[in-house]
Specification:
Radius of gyration: 31 Å
Order of helices and strands: HHEEHEEHEEHEEEHEHEHEHHHHHHH
Helix content: 40-55%
Structural class: alpha+beta
Strand content: 15-25%
Strand order of the largest sheet: 3-4-9-6-8-7
Number of strands: 12
Largest sheet: 6 strands, mixed, barrel
Shape: elongated
């Protein structure tokens, strides 16, 4: 019976192409706007750490002086990042910051490329479950005794070495030779939760070098830098010893007991630093935020996005009201035809179902067209407003969600018109024939 109703629906749409097209356009525009805002909200709301979210913690320290910042800074100083590495409590831990290099290989015809890089400890790869294609991370000893070793991402490996196993090969970073010890898969979490300060939806770095090389090679910070103290920093050593915040610090704590032990260790660390004149504020403290809390604290998904989703839903309701009026006009126009069907035995339920199938078909077509509008809108936002690609890629779930929302919206709009036409007294229309 459903396919019979579907055939009747298609015939009805072909009889009134202009009116049917207006309804498809009405619902498609509402769906297009709704899916655009919903897609951006969903992509921004993803917790990329998955089940490890509750085990990974960003460390923040209230290290500023009196009468300065009134909140915790999302970053830590280099000296704090260096000192925190001494804690035996975390399962894994790593300080980090963003830098960059001019990258070359041994090919004299290869033009140098400018690449962002992340300065890290070995534990970084285990912290964030980064998969390796070739090789592995440098040895733990390299975190103490520096070595010119590097891990690169698969896509950079393709550019430099054609995608072959490059472990043991040499690349040049700012003309310094580094030995490739590992090639990771195209790991690119979105949001980039481990460093939301430098663009939460920017691509992950493609180069990773040891943190122990920072004071030797004097890596410059390519990220945000903040300081509560006016300091004259003439040398890199002064920068490392300054109160400038430009490092991030993450730890892995797998049990509540580990978290409590680490919080106690941090409290003791703060007390030690107070003895040498740092952490001047009486309420100086440390904070541990798991991934979900970290994204919320840093407003990775602004409240404006939620408001936009709500407004787009209201616009969809307006489109549904317009569709309701068009359906009512369309259905009542063929009341005499329905009267004949009722007279020869069709029940009210059959007439109601037939019209709802037609409404659902219109909604389905509107949903498909709405996906085209959404794709075009996201492409325009990416092109003209320079939104990050991670936010403007149409999520695969939307290909199911959009037609589903469109059919549901159309059915809700079509209930009253379908009820009106099936409840019409057939004798009135038979007498008029």
């Amino acid at each position: 019976m459903f396919f019979y109703y579907l055939d009747l629906a298609w015939r009805s749409i072909r009889k009134t192409p202009f009116l049917s097209l207006l309804m498809v356009l009405a619902i498609s525009i509402g769906i297009g706007i709704t899916i655009t805002t919903l897609n951006i909200y969903q992509m921004a709301s993803i917790n990329p750490a998955g089940e490890r979210s509750s085990h990974l913690f960003a460390v923040r320290l209230w290290s500023q002086g009196i009468d300065t910042w009134d909140e915790l800074n999302p970053q830590v100083t280099y000296q704090d990042g260096f000192n925190l590495r001494k804690s035996p409590v975390p399962v894994r831990q790593s300080p980090m910051f963003r830098t960059g290099f001019a990258v070359q290989n041994d090919d004299p015809d290869f033009k140098p490329i400018l690449e962002g890089a992340r300065v890290i400890d070995r534990d970084f790869f285990g912290l964030f479950s980064i998969p390796f294609l070739y090789g592995e991370a440098w040895e733990k000893q390299v975190d103490i005794d520096s070595a010119y070793q590097v891990v690169i991402r698969e896509d950079l490996n393709k550019e430099l070495f054609g995608g072959e196993n490059s472990v043991g090969r040499t690349i040049y970073l700012n003309q310094k030779p580094y030995q490739v010890v590992g090639v990771i898969d195209n790991w690119n979490p979105s949001p980039k939760y481990y460093d939301v300060n430098n663009g939460a939806f920017n691509d992950a770095e493609r180069i990773f070098v040891p943190y122990s090389l920072a004071p030797i090679e004097e890596y410059q910070s390519w990220g945000n830098n903040q300081s509560w103290r006016n300091e004259s920093l003439n040398t890199y050593a002064e920068r490392l010893a300054s109160e400038s915040h430009w490092n991030q610090y993450w730890v892995e704590l797998n049990t509540p007991e580990q978290k409590q032990a680490y919080e106690e260790w941090l409290s003791n660390y703060i007390e030690q630093q107070k003895l040498i004149g740092r952490f001047e504020m009486p309420e100086a403290k440390a904070d541990l935020s798991d991934v979900a809390t970290w994204l919320k604290v840093n407003n990775v998904v602004p409240e404006d996005n939620k408001i936009l989703v709500g407004l787009s839903a209201l616009f969809l309701i307006v489109c549904m009201v317009n569709m309701l009026g068009l359906l009512l006009a369309k259905f009542l126009k063929r009341a005499s035809e329905v009267g004949v069907r009722r007279a020869i035995g069709a029940s009210q339920g059959q007439i109601f179902s037939q019209h709802l199938v037609e409404v659902g078909l219109i909604g389905f077509c509107g949903g498909l067209l709405g996906l085209v509008w959404a794709w075009g809108s996201l492409s325009m936002l990416s092109l003209h407003f320079e939104l990050e690609d991670a936010l403007t890629q149409l999520d695969s779930s939307m290909w199911v969600l959009a037609p589903g929302i469109a059919i549901l919206a159309a059915l809700l709009a079509g209930i009253y018109p379908a009820w009106r036409i099936c409840s019409t007294n057939p004798s009135v229309h038979l007498k008029s024939q």
